[in-house]
Each structure stands twice: as C-alpha cells, then as structure tokens.
Specification:
By secondary structure, the chain is mainly beta. The chain has helices spanning 15-24, 99-104; strands at residues 2-4, 10-12, 30-38, 41-45, 48-57, 61-70, 77-84, 88-91, 94-97, 110-117. The strands form 2 sheets. The protein has a 6-stranded mixed β-sheet with strand order 1-2-10-3-9-8. The protein has a 4-stranded antiparallel β-sheet with strand order 4-5-6-7, with no helix packed on it. A hairpin with a 2-residue loop joins β8 and β9. The chain is globular and about 55 Å long.
C-alpha cells in the first residue's frame, strides 16, 4: 500500500505490514529506508513547472537535465549534473536516490520511505 501525505512524501508499506497494524495496532519488526524520489518528465510542484530528463548515460553514471520555470517568472532555468549509478536505483516511480545527494545537488525530489521486515 502506498500512502502520500499533503507534501507529496510517500510511504510504501507491504500488505503484511498493513495487516499487522490492523490486527495488533503496531508496526514493530518493520524498518523503513528513506530515499528521495526524482520524478522524470514534466510535472508541477507548488508553483514551479519542472522537466527532468536523462540526457546521457555511461556505464557508471547518468546525466540529468533539470528545467525549472516558476509561475510568476518568464525565464526558464536549465542545469545539468552527473549522477553516479551508485547513488540511485530505478523503480516504477522514477529514480530513488540517496537523500544526501539530492540535497547537496538541489535536485527537486520527494521523500519516499520503503518498509521491509527487520532482520
């Protein structure tokens, strides 16, 4: 089950976790991994239009192009950056990247928490 809050942050919870919470009222035994989700393509966040695309790919990295246009601004701002493949995984939702990398490089992203059974 996927939960999305008012800020667009996501929690992805296995059905087994949901059943346990319903049955017992707690989620002990589960651990969450927090990443940042970079959504590819065109979308709007608050009052900014974004277009994020992969423009080049090598064996060890991808190059992202990020175009931003604010609602009350006539100019578009475009920048590119190289993203090592070691800091992200690809999912059906987009690129799931390590939080420190997206913050350091100011990449527009939403927080995503994936839960798994504690080992």
């Amino acid at each position: 089950m996927t939960r999305i809050d008012e800020f667009g942050d996501m929690e992805i919870r296995p059905d087994e976790m949901e059943e346990q919470e319903t049955r017992t009222g707690d989620t002990r035994g589960w651990v969450g991994e927090v990443l940042n989700l970079i959504k590819l393509g065109e979308h709007t966040v608050i009052d900014t239009e974004l277009n994020i695309a992969i423009v080049k790919e090598t064996e060890k990295a991808i190059q992202l192009q990020i175009t931003e246009k604010e609602e009350d601004d006539d100019e578009e701002y475009t920048h590119t950056l190289w993203m090592p493949k070691s800091v992200f995984t690809t999912s059906e939702l987009g690129l799931e990247a390590q939080t420190w990398f997206t913050k350091k490089n100011r990449i527009p992203a939403v927080k995503i928490t994936r839960f798994r059974k504690e080992v």
